[in-house]
Structures are given as structure tokens and as C-alpha cells.
Amino acid sequence: MARRAGAPEVNAGSMADIAFLLLIFFLVTTTIETDAGLDRMLPPIEPPDTDVVIKQKNIFQVNINKNGQLLADEELIDLKNLRAKAMEFLDNGGDGTCSYCKGRKNAESSDNPSKAIISLKNDRETKYGTYITVQNELVGAYNDLRNRESQRLFGRDFTDMEAEYLNPETSSSLKDELKEKVKSIQDLFPQKLSEAETSTSN
């Protein structure tokens, strides 16, 4: 009687190699999405030695309630008007020391762009989308004013110059040239955007 042959064996010697190649393939081809985040300067670790006195008229207060309504300098406004209102405050030049300001020079509003501060306060129940949109409008107010001055001084938008300066592919010689221009425009309208402690609705 003929002897029955056993089940054929599977050669699994190369399975580890195949798994390793697949792992490398997925690592190389997979893209990982990252959140852009918000560009903000954190306060210094050490508190200043002297107390800084800030006039109330140099603070532009923006409050967002849980329903997404905006209160800017104690006035209820629409989101579409926030940027213009912030620009009016930043560009006021109330004390007459700002030679490039084109505002109304209202003595009751900010003295100078270097002293103007925008304070943002939101409710704990404020929607994240509303919070980000308000942030974008306030940063947009700074960028619009910076673009205006950059066009006047250098014939191009500040946002384009800054993007080129931050681009890692930009040559070092061009970066050195752009650095001075970007800083000079930032000094004209320094971005002083602070966030007050979040409030809770009753």
C-alpha cells in the first residue's frame, strides 16, 4: 500500500522581509497632518521688575460670548466689521507722535501703534470656529496695516515678504535683506494681541 504524502509545507522564510518592505512603503508614502496652530508670543518666565502702567484708551477690548456675539469696546458689532474697527484703533495716532498713521487722531482712542493693545476675552462655551475666526480678523487688521506701509516703503506686501523670509528655500543672502525689511514693518505696527482669562457664563 502506497504511503500518503503529508501536506505541502509553506516556505515562510521570506515573510519577515515582505512585512518589513511593506512597513517601509507605508512609512514613506503616508502623510501625517499637523495643525498649523496660532502664532503667539508667550509671556516671559520672569515678571518685569517694574509695573507697567497702561492707559485704558490704549486697550481695545474684544469679548466673545457663548452665542458668538462680539462686544468691541463695549459696542455690539458684527464679525464682518471687526477688522475695520481694530484697524481704526491701531491706526489712530491720538498723541500725534505717529507720522505714518492715517487715523482720526482721536484723543479718546489709542495714542500710538506701539502702545496699542488688543485684548481678547472669550466665554468657555464659545465655539472654537468662532474663536479662530475672530483671531484671524484681528491678525488680519495688523497685516492690512503692515501691507499698507510695506507697499509705501518697499513696493510689495508685508505678508509676501514675510512668507519669503520664512521659506526654508530662500537663500541666506536674500533672507538677510528681507529680515531688516520685515522687522522695520513689524516695528511700525507691533502685534500686541493678548488674551484675557476665559470667563464662564451664568
From TrEMBL:
Signal peptide segment: none
GO-annotated cellular components: plasma membrane
Keywords for this protein: Cell membrane, Membrane, Protein transport, Transmembrane, Transmembrane helix, Transport
InterPro entries, sorted: ExbD
Keyword Lyase among record annotations: no
Main location: membrane
Source superkingdom: Bacteria
Membrane topology, as annotated: Single-pass membrane protein; Single-pass type II membrane protein
The protein's name in its UniProt record: Biopolymer transporter ExbD
GO MF annotations, alphabetized: transmembrane transporter activity
Pfam family, one: ExbD
Organism: Ulvibacterium marinum
Subcellular location: Cell membrane
GO biological process, one term: protein transport
UniProt record similarity statement: Belongs to the ExbD/TolR family.
